[in-house]
Specification:
Helix content is 45%, strand content 13%. The protein has 402 residues and is of the alpha/beta class. The two termini are 18 Å apart.
């Protein structure tokens, strides 16, 4: 079958779909991944067809820049998804960020579709909305806050949906009305995170499942420079903030070096979108690399608690020092801490070298953090999220929705 996967956002919002796409291709499907042009090379390197979506997350000031111009961006995104689908597809797989627009494209094409989500966005009584950090307001309050969060999403997409449906010659339909239609049809959405972090809420409707992570396609290898550094001394601490902290690279680099020295640890700094840099003999600065290859060999992982990096650290059995910034990051940071695999989160706005040094010392000296992370990693190893998507696609091809 011809499968079109759509994903928009930062590297962490897109990378898991490269590995998912590879697994679908190995199952015999023709797979295209529609995303931003900055990821074209990564998509094609995996042997997948690339189809462009508008927007440059990094050039636009990172994810924060996209959020600031959100209404304009979703209008562009709707047109982009419609254009990406024009060559045709038998199944549309929609990410969290593309689903509110992709539903309407699937309707116009008469194409089967499903959600492939990296975050739990369906309201539940078990925790509050992920974008609000999921602080519990009690069962009733959590569900009410979850519905309110979806209302914000629908209002953000209202004009874009109206324009998209007109473009597709569809009658007007609001976002809430579309959601009610999907609930009635038990539209399937598989969630690509581990039950080691978040179990499937008992009050979710049929068709919503937590299946385990989709891992980015990677080489499984590290550069000679990184291998040489790893071999030259004790296991280092990894520090990286992914797509966060744009324009703060020099400050964050100095802070990281100071914290590492105070903690008595070597470090590997990933430049990321912030452009972290370090001038120290016992600290190595690197660009893009395979987290799955590196994280099992570090003493701890300091990260922004994006869904992908949080999962990669847990999969490696490495203790985490979460420094969440925005969006779903506080949620994942608290989940890592709740299962004992991370020290208490340090909000990015409160980050100091002293606090970071203390957290690093705690993470690397208390064996309980590594023990809990290892237990979660063993559970994750039993999950095969990509295989569950392959199975769902087969059922959709037979006209079975769930």
């Amino acid at each position: 079958m011809r499968i079109l996967v759509t994903a928009a956002g930062s590297h962490g919002d897109v990378a898991p779909y490269t590995g998912l796409g590879v697994r679908l291709a190995e199952a015999g499907h023709e797979v295209a991944l529609a995303t931003h042009g900055s990821y074209a090379e990564a998509v094609e390197r995996c042997g997948l067809e690339f189809r462009p979506l508008p927007g440059d997350p990094q050039g636009g000031g990172g994810k924060g820049g996209m959020l600031r111009r959100a209404k304009e961006f979703v209008g562009e995104l709707g047109r982009g998804i419609a254009e990406a689908a024009e060559p045709g597809a038998d199944v549309l797989l929609l990410s969290t960020s593309t689903a509110p627009l992709g539903w309407h494209v699937a309707e116009a094409l008469g194409t089967a579709s499903a959600g492939v989500y990296l975050q739990p966005v369906e309201p539940t009584g078990e925790f509050g909305p992920v974008v609000g950090g999921a602080r519990s307001l009690g069962r009733w309050g959590n569900r009410a806050a979850g519905r309110a969060a979806l209302g914000v999403v629908d209002r953000l997409h209202r004009d874009a949906v109206a324009q998209l449906r007109a473009r597709l010659d569809l009658p007007p339909l609001s976002g809430p009305a579309m959601r009610r239609r999907l609930v009635g049809a038990q539209w399937p959405a598989l969630h690509g995170f581990s039950t080691a972090l978040v179990r499937r809420p008992a009050d979710w409707r049929a068709g919503l499942e937590v299946v385990g992570n989709w891992w980015p396609a990677g080489s499984g290898e590290l550069s000679y420079q990184v291998e040489e550094f790893l071999a030259s001394g004790p296991a280092p601490v990894f520090i990286g903030f992914g797509s966060m902290g744009a324009g703060q690279g020099e400050r964050l680099g100095r802070l990281a070096v100071e914290a590492l020295r105070a903690a008595g640890r070597r470090g590997i700094l990933q430049a990321g979108w912030a452009g972290l840099t370090a001038d120290a003999d016992d600290v190595l600065t690197v660009g893009p690399l395979d987290h799955a290859a590196l994280f099992p060999r570090v003493a701890a992982v300091v990260h922004h608690a994006g869904a992908g990096t949080a999962a990669a650290a847990l999969r490696a059995g490495a203790p985490s020092v979460p420094v969440p910034v925005t969006a779903d990051q506080p949620f994942w940071a608290r989940r890592l801490t709740a299962i004992g695999a991370a020290v208490a989160p340090i909000p990015f706005r409160d980050l100091t070298a002293e606090r970071l040094a203390s957290a690093i010392r705690q993470a690397v000296t208390d064996p309980a953090y590594r023990d809990f992370a290892a237990a979660a990693a063993a559970r994750m190893a039993k999950e095969d999220g990509a295989d569950r998507v392959v199975d769902l696609v087969a059922r959709l091809g037979r006209g079975v929705s769930a």
